[in-house]
Amino acid sequence: MARFNKTSSRSTMRIIGGSSHPELTALIAKKVGVKPGQVILGKFANNETNVQLQEQVRCQDVYIIQTGGVSSNDAIMELLLLINSCKLASAESITVITPYFPYSKGDQKSSLRSPITAKLVANMLKRAGANHLMMMDPHSPQLEGFFDHPVDSLKVEPLFCSWIKQNIPSWKDCIVVSPDEGGAKRSVMIANSLGLEFAMIHNRHKKSLKKKSSVAVPLIRRDVDDISDEIVQVHQPPEELQLTHKMVDKYLKISGDVSGLDCIVVDDMIDSGSTIRLALAVLHTHGSGKVYVFSTHGLFSGPCAQILLESPNLEKLVVTNTLPQARNLTSMGSKMEVVDISGMVSEFIRRSHYNESVSVLSHYSTEKESLNSRKVSSESEVEEDFSDLNIEPPTQRLRKGFRLESVCWD
Predict the structure, then answer these.
(1) CA distance 294 to 320
(2) Residue 233: predicted pLDDT
């Protein structure tokens, strides 16, 4: 009850960032209106993680920002130590903000004797002292059920829809395509929001690879006298991309007509790039036009960037900054664009700190359009209806500072 009886203000808020994404932490703290908490992050001589808080957090609402995908093992250990340090320092509440939840692919057993890694990470966060968690566009919905404390999963569809309307001139003539069966629901949400048609690619190639026996990777042999310091690089595409046109027609089918249409491909993450590369090949085979690829989490592992750039019909690759993208922007150039999520996360922090609803963040575009399209016959009638109740009309109660691309308050 003490949490609800006290007066909340920005003076009781602390934002602490890990070492995985300091740029995002700085953007969020700037838009929230507070300075990032001072903390020492490093390694001991024996390579163990060292965490020390440099300011008091007693009776404060602490928000710890740490994303996965960047040295995930070190990021998890660092996050656990940050949570426990705040708990032992008598923090009022500890909210973990993981734009990309680490080990999110480990949401089920991949074989008979394999762990459910995402559930294990959830248990560790709970035991460390976390009270609340926020993630962006999880890999699977069941991740929320792994936690015993409240979890908020924010969607990036409003940001993607806004980008599509602002940067694709003929977006009304496009078609939304899901690269596989798993991303169908996500693609349908964007298609319904934009009022576009929907198509889906049936990818059976990965299942066919599981039936094949494992092939030994050839060793790189070199002479004894060759002791140069040059790095040996082997440019070989992944096994799932080593297929012929006959195999494409056999294992990859598409439901829907994409001939002559620009396509919007939507997926939750780009890791090795094989799923998106196969989708680009199928769309090119069926005579589609330009292809815009949207993904929340851009991991770009290995030669992913080079694999995607080889596709002739890739027009633009749009990802968010849930992960650092500076190096990927350099390698992909004008083909890639990054959508900023710091405005959405900062608005979540503000609403969570003041005990307000956060569901509006997932329907921002729809509510804004419905508000603009709403026609009131007479403004005087609206004012008279609410004057008797001594409350403001709904249009006046909206916060002017609620802008996902800017600061989250006036």
Answers:
(1) 9
(2) 41
Q: What is the pLDDT of residues 79-108, one digit of tens each?
A: 999 999 999 999 999 999 999 999 998 888
Token pair of 122 as six digits: 């959830």
Three-state DSSP class for residue 123 = helix
The rounded radius of gyration (Å) of the Cα atoms in the chain is 24
Quote the CA–CA distance of 19 and 67 in Å, as a whole number. 9
For 285-367, where are the E strands, in sequence order?
291-298, 314-320, 336-339
- Which of 4-8, 23-27, 77-81, 344-348 has the lowest average pLDDT? 4-8
Contact partners, residue 5, CB within 8 Å, separation at least 6: none
Residue with tokens 């996360």: 345
Read off the pLDDT of residues 157-200 as tens digits, 9 standing for 90 and up. Answer: 999 999 999 999 999 999 999 998 888 989 999 999 999 999 99
Please report the beta strands in 44-196, taking only residues with DSSP state E, as ranges in sequence order.
49-53, 61-65, 93-98, 132-136, 151-154, 175-178
Phi, psi dihedrals of residue 140, rounded to the nearest 5°: -145, 145
CA 324, CA 313: separation in Å to the nearest integer? 26
- Candidates 14, 45, 11, 41; CA nearest to 29 is 14
Q: How far apart are the first and last CA of the chain?
A: 30
Selection from 295, 276, 270, 299 nearest residue 72 by Cα:
299
Angle, helices 184-194/157-167, rounded to nearest 10 degrees: 50
